[in-house]
Amino acid sequence: MRKDYNLEKRKFVIAGVIVVLVMIYIGRLFVLQVGDSKYKENADSNAFLEKTIYPSRGLIYDRMGKLVVYNQPAYDVMMIPKDVQPFDTLDFCQTLQITPEELNRRIETMKKGRNYSAYTQQVLLPHISAQDYGRLQEKLYRFPGFYIVQRILRQYNVTCGANILGNIREVNQSDIDGDDYYRPGDYIGDLGVEKSYEKWLRGRKGKEILIRDALGKIKGRYNDGANDITPIAGNDLHLSIDMDLQALGERLMQGKMGAIVAIEPKTGEILALVTSPNYDPSLLMGKERGNNYAALIRDPRMPLFDRSIQAGYPPGSTFKPTQGLIFLQEGIIDLSTAFPCYRGFVSGGMRVGCHGHGSPLPLKPAIQTSCNAYFCWGLKRMLENRKKYKNISEAFEVWKKHMVSMGYGYKLNVDLPHESRGFIPNAAFYDKIRGEGKWSSYSVISDAIGQGEILATPLQIANLAATIANRGYYITPHVVRNIEGVGVLKKCIERHDPTIDKQYYPSIVEGMRMAVTGGTCRGANLAGLEVCGKTGTAQNPHGRDHSVFMGFAPMSDPKIAICVYAENSGFGATVAVPVAAVMIEKYLRGQLSGGGEAKANRMSSTSSVSTKAYGPKKAASTNTTPVTTNKN
Fold first, then answer.
1. From the centroid of its chain, how far is CA 88?
2. Which architecture does CATH list for 243-294+306-604?
3. Considering Cα of 603, then 608, then 609, then 613, what sign does the dihedral take?
4. Which listed residue, of 115, 148, 285, 616, carries a Cα 20 to 30 Å from 212's Cα?
């Protein structure tokens, strides 16, 4: 019998078609049951309601144990779109005191979110008042698919320290993408310690699973709550900030633009971190947060810009102690080396002005009188020393490395967000803007007195005061002294030893003490407190010079190191010195004397805000014009 090959082929074709259909069917089942969560969400949402239980956010205390930031309940109106049934829109809107147009707008905005799902809870209206919550709770049965979730919002016991405390805001898509802890409608720390310590403050969310019947009514807890998760409260923070001192600092800086930074030298703990102008932290909470934030952004005085750690200022004459230390370390001078001052540095057809005082001067009296010429001569001698350095670039790199070791030019890694690094130029910078081999000691002479391209944050200047107070080391400055249950983070208390031998610091300390007892800082001479200091009058091409002070007290056992930087306020002795004196007296004595209170009242009523305000820098200037005005 002859074999029918066509029939044989058809059998294979039919079998193949069947196999393909079976595979398609299996694949589709897999997608429906495993790969596509929509149907699972649908089924689960019919049977269960999973509610997130938000933990209590960690509390914040100040140095003295005073409660600064705590929690208050807030309520969000949630909806599961799939469960929403026709309802009385007007009644709903009147209950929540919103318009139907606003309701529609919020629903449309919700649907455009990347994480929108008709089967899961979505935030419809955040931060409703307790009164709105009460009215809605009574009528909630009329609005199927709508729920109320209790959250935690921040409340402040103080009106100061907003730059330190920060605030919380609703998460955005970037936050959600960066950390799977967050879901739409959650809140996250924004600015200050709320941001930098978010992972400790936020705690761990809990979960409650409720079971529903076929009509969607809640019948009770699923599995008697065995699958629920209890929320865990966040860790409390204990700040190093003395809020009374912080409030005083903000009072003293009223009507001024600038900053105050006070540090405990031995520990690196920041006692006060003032930026001015500032704002009440309670402005950035509740329903009006968005409007208030927009207003702060538009404010030309930039109150959201933390000048204490973000502004790059010329340090002026507060820079001179670093120069004395470098010159001693490098053997450029000794304590008896004297340089002339002809009411300024005069050399090579250049003049850098100075005020009248005795001449020639050695190092300590040069610090006492804030002699510009002395430090200009010292830098010139260092950069032109061919017995020690093969060329100016090598000498300048040695100078720069010493500066960096003392905390300039790079971030100090304070435990707050958005710190600036300031700016210390290197030889390559001058090669670029001047031309390789085309610059000399005269081109950069202003660097010796904290002008030219030099930029520093008030934190860096205060940190230098702490370094000198400690006679040659500093601890990373930080604002959190303890995380409850964790301790202080190791990275916050690292010890740093500059490249300057410790034997050279006592002479600088003596010069700074002389500046207070009989020099440019006499206004900081407080009986019995042995204040050491250095003034600065930083040149400002946009208006009046900036008033600066750096110092510490007491001399023999320092408890506080401080920098005051007041923009457009003139000589260092005019504003910065009296402000610092009041701060030092308050911290060391616990209260102000009659004279101290009078000085505080005078300073708080002194205004130096100008339409030609400095506008603190974030990057280096390329102005290398030598300074020709008096700097002290």
1. 48
2. 3-Layer(aba) Sandwich (3.40)
3. negative
4. 115
Fold for the domain defined by 51-204+225-235? Penicillin-binding protein 2a (Domain 2) (3.90.1310)
Residues 6+ apart with CB under 8 A from 516: 522, 524, 525, 531, 532, 533, 551
Q: If DSSP codes are grouped into helix, strand and coil, which group holds residue 296? A: helix
What are the structure tokens assigned to 199, written together? 């992972």
**Residue of 306, 298, 292, 308 lying closest to 166 (CA atoms):** 306
Output 426-435 pairs: Cβ under 8 A, ≥24 positions apart. Answer: 426/396, 426/397, 426/400, 427/392, 427/393, 427/394, 427/396, 427/397, 427/400, 429/453, 429/620, 430/396, 430/624, 431/393, 433/622, 433/624, 434/624
Rounded to a whole number of angstroms, the CA Rg of the chain reads 33
Question: Between residues 153 and 400, which one has the greater pLDDT?
Answer: 400
Is the bond preceding residue 86 a cis peptide, omega within 30 degrees? Answer: no
> Any idea which residue has 């100061």 for tokens?
160
pLDDT digits (tens, 9 = 90+) for 562-610: 999 999 888 888 899 999 999 999 999 999 999 999 999 999 998 877 5
* pLDDT tens-digit readout, 134-164: 899 888 888 988 988 887 889 999 999 999 9
Q: Residue 438: phi, psi to the nearest 5?
A: -110, 15
Give the Cα separation of 172 and 182 in Å (integer): 9
**Do 561 and 469 touch, CB atoms closer than 8 A?**
yes
Q: What is the pLDDT of residues 100-125, one digit of tens each?
A: 999 999 888 888 877 788 877 788 88
